[in-house]
Amino acid sequence: MLQRKISVAQIAVQLGRHRSTIHREIRRNFWNDPEVPMATGYWHMNAQHLAAGRRKRLAKLLRDDELREGVITVLKAGWSPQQIAGRMRHEGGRRRVCHETIYRYVYSPEGQAQELGRYLPERRRKRKARYARKPRSLVFPERCMIRNRPQAVKDREAFGHWEADLMIFRKEHGPANVATVIERISRYTVIFRNNDRRSKPLMNNLINLLSPLPRHARQSLTFDRGLEFVSWRELEKGLGAQAWFCDPQAPWQKPTVENTNRCVRRWLPRDTILLAIEQKELLGLAQRMNATPRKCLSYRTPAEVFRDELAKASGVQ
Questions:
Q1: What is the pLDDT of residue 139?
Q2: CA distances from residue 194 to 172, 188, 228 in whole angstroms, order as listed
Q3: Which of 28, 87, 98, 112 gets the highest tally of CB atoms within 10 A of its CB?
Q4: Over 50: is that where the pLDDT of 226 sits?
Q5: Which residue ranges make up each domain of the chain?
Q6: What NCBIfam families does the database record attribute to this sequence (predicted)?
Q7: What CATH number should be reported for the domain whose range is 142-314?
Q8: pTM given for the model
């Protein structure tokens, strides 16, 4: 249209853009070579080349090789872009990057060529919303409903209150499953395997796992209404802990363990053969998650916060 001598205002109308946008486009990408005066003007190939060059210069992770390699290393270790950016701010170094820059690099042609998207928490190829599955429901006593849980527990003001859930895998690989138990304040994570979904063995494993902790560190556990939690009274007898249960079809009422399960799925997808995995490998996975900084903890790690809360409640300075 410029070659046809059409005015910028008319070009803007036909392209559905403001005339200032067209003026800026022409000014930024106008080619002016004194050695070839006949080539002077706005040419779409040159404009695209110039725009791509500016975009590459503005991409911090493309310009800084050392920063890029550091980001990719911790991304492959399981850190989310927010955790990476937040930890950089927490450490106070000069070289830092925001989480949006990391996402843009991951979804850029360079990041896609390295398949970096599979290291993100949701392992998405495109940035879009997903929906969580709904658990099964069962009737439990009214006094154990989550609506009766103290406000201090709901607001994460009291230490020693946990959330628990089961991660289920493909039926053809057997009934084995993985239990995840999360402390609500510190996000401290414990992971262990169950060979089936029977309730009593699961509760016995929980009792054996949490009983070494002091009483103030194991005050209650919140579950959904799955059949695997029907023996919850064993907790009151063996652990002295209160059990709370979500409303029907309301997994969002125990968000800490639900979010943790989504993270764990990166290493334990549904087609995992659990019987081929030893407990020490699950222990190592839990240690990795507990050593990963969290935005909700001001980029401290769950292990650091859990240790501080134990010392605080025990009166240890």
A1: 54
A2: 16, 20, 11
A3: 87
A4: yes
A5: 8-58, 61-119, 142-314
A6: transpos_IS30
A7: 3.30.420.10
A8: 0.61
